[in-house]
Amino acid sequence: MPRIAGVDIPKDKPIWVALQYIYGIGKASSQQILADAGVEPTIRAKDLNDEQVGGIQTVITQSYKVEGDLRREVQSDIKRLIEISCTRGLRHRMNLPVHGQRTRTNARTKKGARKTVAGRGQRRGVAKK
Fold first, then answer.
1. What domains sit in the chain, N to C, each tagged with a CATH number?
2. pLDDT (tens digit, 9 = 90+) per residue, 67-86?
3. At what angle do helices 50-63 and 27-37 cross, to 10 degrees?
4. Could you tell me if 39 and 49 are in contact, meaning their C-beta atoms sit under 8 angstroms apart?
5. Which conformational region is residue 2 in: left (phi greater than 0), alpha (psi within -120 to 50 degrees), or beta?
6. Bridge partners, 8 (sequence order)
7. Other CB atoms closer than 10 Å to residue 21's CB: what's the count?
8. Distance (Å, whole) CA 33 – CA 36
9. Rounded Cα–Cα distance for residues 33 and 16 (Å)
10. Full-model pTM
11. Are 22 and 59 in contact (CB under 8 A)?
């Protein structure tokens, strides 16, 4: 199991897929890394030699911010938004969707389990006062 950028990547997957297990590397950047390193994208991770692993590692460290550094940067960006009390920061603080999604329905992942409120809704056949 090769270790690249501090992450054990799966050995039985093609290397272009296995690189996506590293935080901050997606499909396009994975393929770009392999092109820069001169590695065939369809080769399995277990079939890489040390020279190829080293080439991939150097391309990632020189050109990309991944794993801990990227996580730290994202968290500091969110913290800055919260501190300046902009709309996005307030949405992060209240644990609500940030990018304009509706919350009347859906958004259960962010809002958590439903909370029942007394007096909410109508019973059938009963008119409102």
1. 3-63 (1.10.8.50), 70-129 (4.10.910.10)
2. 989 999 999 999 999 999 99
3. 120
4. no
5. beta
6. 3
7. 16
8. 5
9. 9
10. 0.76
11. no
